């Protein structure tokens, strides 16, 4: 797969090859060389040598696992004895499994709120990080700092925060006259808590937005100011359109991350996904099947379904992006 | 593209020259009124408090005694700081063992990631070989591949090799590059003027020599970014250790703390857990404060187009 199509056939009979090659040469536009010259071939060899770790990585860690995953999804396999073929049984089970429906709806609930919210938080942070004040480096550090806190530690902090007996969250509620609630004990509350927790980690997406903001040429703003555009008009007419390629990147990584939400839910619920399967996200259920119940075949089918859903969403976003992403001005 | 590096250097020089003057002036050189940044500052300070809150609450809880932690309403700062919680946290669980395992994995991953991704990115940017940009699309495509689909086969593969419950499954993949780091470094390497590379080639320099003498010195900010990303990702990784490291002797801090909490729920208190968590993130905070400049500049120059 790594050899580009410009390399001619090497092992056919010389006469046949020459005839075939001249046929093809006739059909080709004249500016394409029929074969590579020795310099190009040497460059190809050097280039492939440099990227060879990646080629090995793609084959061993991506291509082989994806194919193996698809074939395992048609089997019953516990990891011990050989897999037995069951056809599409796993997919039939998945479609009718009420816990798959529950896990999927939890994940969709999470994605619909967490992804747009995450983009807004990240963009706001990026704008704050881009302010022309002397101590801006300090703000950048502070806004990014929670992104360094690992999900498990952040989950511990939230467990303390939201504790129904001594948590500061309930103190604030009491202050406004509310009664004590146990957010983590409520099937919807636990999802909200996990969504809020994720917002503190917006630093990475914010830095990517910041990179985009700094690539917008200053002259464009100066021209807009001369034309009398205020800050809000400048944001919607200049900043936002020019940020759309970066927005697309953050949107896709955001959606992909949301479909895979796992660690926070795993720790907050101690691996159960309770109360009432309210925090049983798709990856949690997949993990439980694979490593809890040793149903590797069924879990592979769930993984393939997640893969297809992610692929469909990414293609949908790319297709929609042709309408809203603006590549007109090359910033920089 | 190449102008970006220069612009950045100019900025640094200008800033060194007259900090105050630069910040008090608009881009066109006119003076800004003193109150123009007040609203921005108020908003940013409020946001800062919000974003520092989890870290503060972690440290405050870590220093509270068992009785003080159980109080309602909670005390806003530890009235009698209990530094003993840190000692208890380290001794109540095999903290140093977990720490050593995390350190071995993280250091190996950082070294392997920096080397492999830099060589791969060089191959995708500084050498013009036929088909290069087409294959780079494949790199981009793998960026969006959800990793769960490879999870089970990978586990099966490492299990067959008898390497589950060793650190290898978490280290070895770093030697084969990662789409995001390749992408980042390639963006950076493309800014090196072609003419400079070609001049070196005409002078008889091999690609390895160009990589070492020209590409490497130019790419230090981007490589620092990759190193920090790799360090943070590896140090904080939860799912990898959860799947591959079941034996507590090989467990890392992330999975070790969670396992210890769920197994010994009665013995380990939240102040100790907060103390242990703080010790976990302390190396990252130090790393970030030391390299902060490089880090943010690495991303912002590397640029997403």
- Can you give the helix content of chain B as a percent range? over 70%
Shape of chain B: globular
Tell how many strands the DSSP assignment of chain B holds.
0
Q: How many domains comprise the coordinates of chain A?
A: 2
Largest interface: A-B, 106 and 97 residues
User: In DSSP terms, counting alpha (H) and pi (I) runs of 4 or more, how many helices of chain B?
Assistant: 16
Order of helices and strands of chain A: HHEEHHHHHHHHHHHH
In words, what does this structure look like?
The complex is a heterodimer of chains A (332) and B (305). Chain A has 14 helices and two strands, in the order H-H-E-E-H-H-H-H-H-H-H-H-H-H-H-H. Chain A is an all-alpha fold and 332 residues long. Chain A folds into two domains: 35 residues, no CATH class; 233 residues, MetI-like (MetI-like fold). Chain A has a two-stranded antiparallel sheet. The longest helix of chain A is centred in the N-terminal third of the chain and has 35 residues. The relative contact order of chain A is 0.11. The N terminus of chain A is likely disordered. Chain B is globular. Chain B is mainly alpha-helical and 305 residues long. Chain B has two domains: 65 residues, no CATH class; 214 residues, Orthogonal Bundle (MetI-like fold). Classes of the chains: A mainly alpha (332), B mainly alpha (305).
Features:
heterodimer, A: 332 residues, mainly alpha, MetI-like fold, 2 domains, two-stranded antiparallel sheet, 2 strands, disordered N terminus, B: 305 residues
Concise summary:
The complex is a heterodimer of chains A (332) and B (305). Helix content of chain A is 70%, strand content 1%.
Set out the fold topology.
The complex is a heterodimer of chains A (about 325) and B (about 300).
Chain A: H1 14-27, H2 38-72, E1 75-76, E2 84-85, H3 89-96, H4 98-129, H5 136-148, H6 151-161, H7 168-175, H8 187-199, H9 203-215, H10 218-226, H11 231-259, H12 263-268, H13 282-292, H14 296-324
Antiparallel strand pairs in A: 1-2
Helix pairs in contact in A: 3-14, 4-8, 4-9, 4-11, 4-13, 5-9, 9-11, 11-14, 13-14
Chain B: H1 3-17, H2 19-23, H3 38-62, H4 66-69, H5 84-92, H6 95-125, H7 132-143, H8 148-160, H9 168-171, H10 179-189, H11 194-202, H12 207-218, H13 220-236, H14 239-244, H15 253-263, H16 270-302
Helix pairs in contact in B: 3-16, 5-16, 6-10, 6-13, 6-15, 7-10, 13-16, 15-16
């Amino acid at each position: 797969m790594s050899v580009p199509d410009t390399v001619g056939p090497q092992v056919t009979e010389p006469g046949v090859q020459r005839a075939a090659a001249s046929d093809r040469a006739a059909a080709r536009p004249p500016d394409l060389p029929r074969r590579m010259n020795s310099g190009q071939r040497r460059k190809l060899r050097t280039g492939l040598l440099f990227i060879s770790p990646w080629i090995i990585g793609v084959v061993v860690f991506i291509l082989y696992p994806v194919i193996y995953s698809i074939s395992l999804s048609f089997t019953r396999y516990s990891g011990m004895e050989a897999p037995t073929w069951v056809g599409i049984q796993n997919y039939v089970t998945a479609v009718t499994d009420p816990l798959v429906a529950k896990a999927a709806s939890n994940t969709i609930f999470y994605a619909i709120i967490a992804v747009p919210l995450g983009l807004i938080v990240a963009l706001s942070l990026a704008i704050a990080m881009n302010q022309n004040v002397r101590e801006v480096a300090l703000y950048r550090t502070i806004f990014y700092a929670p992104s360094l806190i690992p999900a498990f530690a952040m989950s511990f902090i939230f467990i303390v925060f939201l504790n129904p007996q001594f948590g500061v969250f309930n103190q604030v509620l009491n202050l406004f006259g509310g009664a004590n609630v146990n957010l983590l004990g409520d099937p919807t509350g636990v999802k909200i808590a996990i969504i809020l927790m994720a917002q503190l980690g917006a630093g990475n997406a914010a830095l990517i937005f910041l990179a985009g903001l700094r690539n917008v040429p200053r002259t464009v703003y100066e021209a807009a100011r001369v034309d009398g555009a205020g800050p809000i008009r400048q944001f919607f007419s200049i900043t936002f359109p020019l940020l759309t390629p970066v927005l697309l990147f953050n949107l896709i990584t955001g959606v992909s991350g949301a479909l895979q939400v796992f660690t926070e839910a795993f720790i907050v619920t101690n691996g159960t996904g309770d109360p009432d399967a309210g925090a049983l996200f798709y990856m949690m259920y997949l993990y439980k099947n694979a490593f809890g119940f040793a149903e590797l075949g069924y879990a592979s089918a769930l993984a393939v379904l997640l893969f297809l859903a992610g692929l469909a969403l990414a293609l949908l976003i790319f297709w929609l992006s042709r309408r809203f992403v603006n590549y007109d001005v090359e910033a920089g | 593209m190449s102008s970006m590096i220069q612009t950045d250097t100019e900025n640094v020089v200008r800033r060194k020259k007259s900090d105050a003057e630069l910040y008090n002036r608009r881009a066109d050189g006119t003076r800004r009124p003193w109150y123009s940044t007040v609203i921005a500052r108020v908003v940013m300070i409020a946001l800062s408090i919000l974003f520092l809150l989890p870290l503060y609450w972690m440290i405050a809880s870590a220093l509270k005694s068992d009785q003080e932690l159980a109080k309602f309403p909670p005390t806003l700062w530890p009235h009698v700081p209990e530094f003993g919680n840190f000692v208890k946290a380290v001794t109540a669980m095999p903290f140093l063992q977990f720490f050593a395992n995390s350190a071995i994995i993280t250091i190996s991953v950082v070294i392997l990631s920096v080397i492999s991704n830099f060589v791969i990115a060089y191959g995708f940017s500084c050498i013009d070989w036929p088909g290069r940009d087409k294959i780079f699309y494949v790199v981009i495509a793998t960026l969006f591949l959800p990793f769960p689909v490879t999870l089970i086969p990978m586990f099966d593969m490492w299990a067959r090799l008898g390497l589950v419950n060793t650190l290898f499954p978490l280290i070895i993949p770093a030697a084969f590059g990662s789409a995001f780091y390749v992408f980042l470094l390639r963006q950076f390497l493309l800014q090196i003027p072609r003419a400079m590379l070609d001049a070196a080639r005409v002078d008889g320099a091999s690609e390895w020599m160009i990589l070492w003498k020209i590409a490497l010195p130019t790419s230090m900010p981007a490589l620092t970014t990759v190193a920090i990303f790799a360090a943070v990702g590896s140090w904080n990784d939860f799912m990898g250790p959860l799947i591959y490291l079941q034996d507590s002797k090989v467990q890392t801090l992330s999975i070790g703390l969670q396992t210890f909490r769920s197994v010994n729920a009665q013995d380990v208190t939240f102040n100790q857990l907060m103390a242990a968590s703080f010790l976990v993130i302390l190396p990252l905070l130090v790393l970030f404060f030391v390299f902060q400049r490089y880090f943010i500049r690495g991303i912002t120059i590397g640029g997403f187009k």
